[in-house]
Amino acid sequence: MKFSPLVDELIKSLQCLPGVGPRSAQRMTFQLLERDRAAGHKLGQALSEAMADVGHCQRCRTFTEQTLCPVCDNPKRARSGQICVVESPADVLAIETSGQYDGRYFVLMGHLSPLDGLGPDEIGLDRLEQLLQDEAPQELILATNPTVEGDATAQYIADMCRESSIRVSRIAHGVPVGGELEYVDGTTLALSLSGRREL
Amino acid sequence: MKFSPLVDELIKSLQCLPGVGPRSAQRMTFQLLERDRAAGHKLGQALSEAMADVGHCQRCRTFTEQTLCPVCDNPKRARSGQICVVESPADVLAIETSGQYDGRYFVLMGHLSPLDGLGPDEIGLDRLEQLLQDEAPQELILATNPTVEGDATAQYIADMCRESSIRVSRIAHGVPVGGELEYVDGTTLALSLSGRREL
């Protein structure tokens, strides 16, 4: 025996969300049906609208329902002549929250991963190359994740720009602020030492 | 800075789900937009349909989009003359999965909780009283949760039936199968001892 068809369908559909299994899907379904149908309605609508209308920014590839995202659409952001390359829109938000960057972005929407069929074209490097020619920025800041794939992607982009006059930099890796040396892993400490700066 | 309006709206709406905070909502949004728009579309539709069409079974109060749920609609389930009272539709599924019960159900959709404004009428006890008169079952099995509120609710229903000739029983509480005595709490062990049966 199962629940009624519509309830079953909702429980099954909710499991497309990352981290949601049959149990949590059931709990979510009952919570919405019992306590908050208005919120459920709103969520349904928000989902349908976002899935239908959200596309990619023509310049930086982040998610937006306009042709250009708010950052690319802001002429002030072009002044610094910097482009920061990140893996995902969430990384853009993280950097914006730091308040230390006023240039533009380029969002790869992933990283190089040949085994998964993600080559240079899939992460938009052809588009990035075109952008570098068109905008001729002064600096390209590589802010991909400090993982094997992220590092490889950064290296690939750096190699790509070797011929041009663009300054290519990689964000610093080291001990995070507020952390304790005792609990930092060896690789991070090694990077932190090799990347030391004079005071 | 935030994401674009539709993306923001989706991230905010997802937080109506129990256990979903801003971070998971963001991860869910990006996962759906990047990898699985079809599933997102389907989820949006399932939500809208369920919120609009799912109501309560006229007889047992569980969730269904029909007048009667499949269990109440099945004449075979009336034969045993038993009604099992549970707190939620998930409990119905749990009991059905055990395969040991072929009677009907009555779903309270909660438990007595005067402080939250949940009195006898809110959990449908007026409806249950009517049902007991109409169907005159042989046995009423109280399978509310073994919590303070669940026990109080069971006691209240038992008192309600004192005048009638219906046999009222409570499911057994004790050591769960596969558990180890060493790790079972004192109250459960005490109940398990006081509820012992001759072999």
Structure description:
Two copies of one chain form a homodimer. The first copy, chain A, has 199 residues and is of the alpha/beta class. Helix content of chain A is 44%, strand content 11%. In chain A, the strands form two sheets. The first copy, chain A, has a four-stranded parallel sheet. At the A-B interface, helix 1, helix 2, helix 3, strand 2 and helix 5 of A face helix 1, helix 2, helix 3, strand 2 and helix 5 of B. Chains A, B: Belongs to the RecR family. Chains A, B: Keywords: DNA damage, DNA recombination, DNA repair, Metal-binding, Zinc, Zinc-finger. Chains A, B: May play a role in DNA repair. It seems to be involved in an RecBC-independent recombinational process of DNA repair. It may act with RecF and RecO.
Which architecture name of the largest domain in chain A does CATH use? 3-Layer(aba) Sandwich
Q: How many extended strands of chain A? A: 6
Q: Overall mean pLDDT score of chain A?
A: 91
Rounded to an integer in angstroms, the radius of gyration calculated over CA atoms of chain A is 22 Å
For this structure, the quaternary state is homodimer
> Which strand order spans the largest sheet of chain A, edge to edge or round the barrel?
4-3-5-6
Rounded to the nearest angstrom, the distance between the terminal CA atoms of chain A is 70 Å
Remind me, CATH topology of the largest domain in chain A?
A: Dna Topoisomerase Vi A Subunit, Chain: A, domain 2
- Can you tell me the number of structural domains of chain A? 2
